[in-house]
Amino acid sequence: MIHFKHISLIVFLVVCPMFLMGQTQPQVTAETKNSFIIKGFVRESETYIPLKNVNIHGNLGSYAASNLAGEFKIEVRIGDELIISHKDFETIYYTVTSDDDLTIDVRPAEGNQPSALNANKQSPSFSSLLDSALVYKNTSAEKSIQFITQSISKSNSTAQNARAFEVLADVYTHWKQYDLAVSNYRISLNSNKKSSVELKLAKGYYFNKNYQESIALYQHLIKEKGTTSDRAEVYEGLGDVFSKTKQHQKAITAYQLGLTIAKKQLITTKVTDLNSKIAEAYNASGAINEAGNYYKNALNLATKENKQRAIKEKIKVADFNSANRAYKVEIKLRKESLQDIQDIEADTIIDNASDYTLQKQNYKIGNAYYLQQKYEAAIPYLQRSIVEADKREDLVVEKDAKRKLSEVYRDAGDFEKALKAYEEYTQSVEKLYLKKEQQITQASRFSRNIAAQQNRIESLESDRELSESKYHLNQEQNKLQTLIIYSLIGGVLLLLLAAYVMYKFIKQQKLANNLLALKSLRSQMNPHFIFNALNSVNSFIATNDERAANKYLSDFSKLMRAVLENSEENFIPLTKEIELIELYTKLEHFRFKDKFEYVIEIDKNIEILDYNIPPMLLQPYIENAVWHGLRYKKEKGELRIAIYKKTANAITISITDNGIGRDKSKALKTDNQKKQNSKGMGNIKKRVSILNAMYKDTLDVSISDLNMEDGTGTQVLVTLKKH
C-alpha cells in the first residue's frame, strides 16, 4: 500500500498567509528539474466538506480548478509556487517541495469572528502592537507591517505616530526596501524630530544611493549639539559615503575622527570596525603598507572580542592578501577560519549570503592554490566546497566551484575530468536559472503585497489627520472655513505624496525585475558550442593531434573566461565585443577550415570607444551562419562581418553569409535542433526587448535572405546607437 503525506494549511480570511519570504528554496536535482503532475484536495477544515471551483495557478502557466469532490491536478516542478484562491478565503501561496498529494484545509471567515491579531486581546495597546511588529521584523515583513498598520490606527499623539513610522522604516530597511524606508523616516521626523531617527535617515539615504543627501545630513548631525554619544557612528557613516563615492582621503579622515572618539569613549567594537574600514580605504587608495598595518590592528582587536568577529576580520585580511597575491598568508588565515566556522555552526546557522561560510572559504582556498599552480592541493578544497554548497543549497558557490574545478583539471592536463566537471557546471547553471526564475515570481508577489500595505498605511495616516481636523473644527466654529481649506490642502498633499511614492516604487521595482530577468537570460549559456568544442578537443586527442587540441583548448578557455567575466554586465565596450567575436569566429574557422573563409571589416571613421553593446549579442548570429548556413554548403563559403557608420549617432553591424539559406537549413534540422535554436533566438529577442525598454531603443535587429530569388544566404543587420 502506498501512503501519501498530506500537508494541511489553516487559513483565515482576515489573516494573509505569509511564509514565502525567508523560506529556503528546495534544491532542484537532475531527476526533478522536469515537470510532473501533483494531485490535490481542497476542503473546509471543520466539516471536511469539499470545496469546488477553487482556482489553482502554477509557475508553468498551468491552471486547474477543483471539481465537485474538491479534487484537482496541476503540472508543477519542485520549487514552484502554487497560488490557491477563492472568493471565500484569503489567497494561499504554497511552495512545492515533493510530489506527494496535497490536502488544503481552509476555514471561511465568520461574520463576527475577531481577527487573529485580536484573538487573545480584544483591544491591544499601541505599545503591544509595536512590540509584536518588532518580533516579526526579521522573519516576516508582511506580518510586521500588519501590526504597524494596527498601531497607527491606535496612535493618539504625534510622538506615537512618529514612533510607528520609525519602526515601519526600520522594517523596510531590514528587507532592503530603501526608498520606502527613506520616505517613512521622513514622515516620522515630520511628526517628531529626533537625532537618532535623523541618523537612520542618513543611513537610509546611503543605502538608497542618495549620496549627496546622506553627506549633507551627516554633516548637519556633526554640527548639531547633543549628538556626542553618536558622533563616532556619524563619522563612520560619513566615511562610508565617501568610500562609496571613491573619495578615499575624505573617508580616511572621517574614519580617523570617529576612531579617536570611539577610543575616548571606550567603544571597543567601534574601534575594531573603524580600524578595519580605515584599512579598506587605504587599500582602495593604493596605500598597501598603511592598509596592512590597520588590518593587523583590526585583526588583533577582533580576536579579543569574540570568535564570530574574529572570523569576519580574518576573512577580510585574507581577501586583502589575496588581492595582493600573498597566497600563503591568505591560505593560512582561511584554514584557521574553517575550524572557527565549524565551531560557530554548532550553535548558530550561518546564512549563505554571509562571507564566512564553509563552502565559500573552501572555494577561495582552492582558488588560491590554483593561482599558484598547485593543482593537486586545490582539487580537494574545491571538492569540499561543492559538497558543502550542495548540502547547504548554495547554487552560486556550487556553480563557481565546479567551473573552477574544471579549470584546475584542464590546466593539470586531465581533460576527461575537466569535461566531466564542466558538464556538472552547466547543470548547476541550469538549476540556478530555474531558481532565479522562481525567485522572480516570489519577489513580484512580495513587492505587490508591500505596496498594498504601504498604501493602506498612508490611507490610515490621511484618515487620522482628517479626523483630527474635524475634531478641531467642532471646537473652534469661528475658524471653520480656514480649517476646511487646510484639511483639503493637507489631503491633496498626502495624495500627491502617496502617488509620488508609488510611482517611484513601481519604477524601481520594474527596473529591478528587468535587471533580474536580464541576469537570468545571461546565465543561460548555450551549451551547443561548448559541447561541440570539447568534442573537437576529444577528436584531436583521439587522432594524437595534441598540438591542435592544446591550441584549440587554449583559445577556447580565453573565450570562455572573457564571456564569464562579462556575464554580469548589461553592456560592455564595443571593442571587447569585437575581440570576443574575432576569437569565436577564429575557433569556428579552425574547426571548419574547408567550409568557409571569413572577413571582419571595421569602418575607420567609426569611433569604436563611443559605443557599448550587450555582451555576446553577435555570437549566436555568427553561430547560426556557420552551423546552419555555411556548414551544409558543398563549395567553400564566405562569412563577412562588417561594421559601418549609419548616422552620426548610430552604426550598423552586418553579419552576412552565402550559405544554403534559412528555408533549406530549417528543412535539414531535427526537432531537437529546431527547439534549441528557437530557444536561443527567443532569449536574444527578450534581451533586446528589455534593453530597449530600459535604454530607449538602443538596439535594432533585422534578419533577411541575402538572395531573394533562390533564398540562399542570410544577412543579419544590428543597428546600435550611442549609449
From TrEMBL:
PROSITE patterns: TPR. GO terms for cellular component: membrane. Gene3D superfamilies: Histidine kinase-like ATPase, C-terminal domain, Tetratricopeptide repeat domain. Residues 1-26 form the signal peptide. It comes from the Bacteria. The chain crosses the membrane at residues 483-503. TPR repeats lie at residues 232-265. InterPro entries: Bact_2-comp_sensor_kinase, HATPase_C_sf, Sig_transdc_His_kin_internal, TPR-like_helical_dom_sf, TPR_rpt. Residues 443-470 form a coiled coil. GO terms for molecular function: phosphorelay sensor kinase activity. Keywords: Coiled coil, Membrane, Signal, TPR repeat, Transmembrane, Transmembrane helix. Residues 518-596 form the Signal transduction histidine kinase internal region domain. PANTHER family: SENSOR HISTIDINE KINASE YPDA (PTHR34220). This is Tetratricopeptide repeat protein. It comes from Bizionia saleffrena.
